[in-house]
Specification:
Blueprint: H1 5-20, H2 55-61, E1 65-67, E2 70-73, H3 88-108
Antiparallel strand pairs: 1-2
Length: 110
């Protein structure tokens, strides 16, 4: 939560260039995040699915919007992983899966 947004943008840009193999990709122009550990109402809390949630719901959360061929919005985080919800490694795994979708999109659209 304490990293400056410029440092995050630079690190994300470096990762995207590495994964896509495109050294001309620029760093993101904006970082949107929430400081969960500093949020007085969350205090670093994690998610827990409703008793009405279905396993398929996680796959809906991981779908690219508006479509897989045009991924403009991708959700990642422990709340989106079908097997590791509410755990740090679920956040990591879902982030890696979504990053793969971004890399694949850029690879196929150069």
């Amino acid at each position: 939560d304490g990293l400056p947004e410029a440092d995050i943008a630079q690190a994300v840009g470096k990762l995207l260039r590495k994964f896509t193999g495109d050294p001309t990709l620029k760093d993101p122009s904006k970082v949107v995040r929430h400081a969960w550990l500093k949020d007085e109402f969350a205090l670093g809390a994690w998610s827990y699915p409703s008793h009405q949630a279905k396993h398929e719901d996680y796959f809906e959360l991981m779908k690219a919007e508006p479509s897989e061929s045009n991924p403009r919005l991708l959700m990642a985080g422990e709340h989106t992983h079908p097997r590791a919800w509410s755990f740090m490694h679920g956040a990591l795994l879902s982030g890696l899966e979504q990053a793969d979708k971004i890399a694949e999109f850029y690879k196929n659209n150069q």
